[in-house]
Amino acid sequence: MYIIKNCLSILSKIFIKRGNLEIEIISDVLEYNKEHAEVNRQLFKDYNVLVINILSSPGSGKTSLITQSIKRLSNFKIGVIEGDISSTYDAEKIKQYINDVVQINTGGTCHLNASMIEKALKKIDVKNLDIIFIENVGNLICPIGFDLGEDFKILLSSVSEGDDKPVKYPKGFIKSSAVLLNKIDLLQVSDFNYDFFEKKVRQLNPESPIMKISCKTGEGLDNWIDWITEKIKK
Predict the structure, then answer these.
(1) How far apart are CA 15 and CA 191, in angstroms?
(2) Is 232 helix (H, G, I), strand (E, B) or coil?
(3) pTM of the full structure
(4) Cα 192 to Cα 185: distance, rounded to the nearest angstrom
């Protein structure tokens, strides 16, 4: 369990003196993150591990998606890195199905970064895994800009959140390799406009597939599992 109390804790500081003036320069956090992301990426490449970073708002169903995926991918060895502000609640759920689970508590930071992932990887048997799911902190703003060394970013939205997520949080949809719409079992009892949702996603990201799923009923999950198995590294 790794606690990062503030993003600034990972920044290096440089001091420049000009006469009596001391200027403090804080190095770019994204550049620092990039270095660690490349270390992670090389490790994943060396061991042929498929790594999927799942992004969503709180309550979209990330943990349910991971547990349902584990059940349907029983022929593969899977690890999970679970990111939350606090608690081990979701990690404990996943531990019912697999052993290679690491909890990262950020202690208030609104995203995972590559350094956190690098440390977490020392706690799981990476070399013997086929897939690693990273459940990022529930947030569609901060996590988008942080490369973790993953192969794919996946954006999970849900019917219960409303159809306007692509309008309000466009960057996440632009950067995702696939978009999943969860809780489609609620479509008939909500005012969610799927045509509007699809149109807005397509305007942002014409290439990535949009998959309608229900982690509760299992509807559509076969398409998601097919997508993963096609991406697994040989």
Answers:
(1) 56
(2) coil
(3) 0.87
(4) 12
16: its two tokens: 């420049």
- Residue 41 has which token pair? 């990426």
- The Cα–Cα gap between 123 and 100 comes to 8
Domains of the chain: 7-231 (3.40.50.300)
**Helix 221-231, helix 62-72: angle, nearest 10:** 70
Q: What are the tokens at 201?
A: 């996603």
CA distances from 207 to 68, 164, 179 (A): 25, 20, 10
The DSSP bridge partners found for residue 24 are 15
Q: What is the dihedral of CA 195, 197, 201, 202, to 10 degrees?
A: 10
Q: State pLDDT tens for residues 120-142.
A: 999 999 999 999 999 999 999 99
The answer on pLDDT for 158 being more than 80 is yes
- Cα maximum dimension of the chain: 70
Round the CA-based radius of gyration of the chain to a whole number and report it.
19
Residue pLDDT, tens place only, 28-65: 777 889 999 999 999 999 999 999 999 999 999 999 99
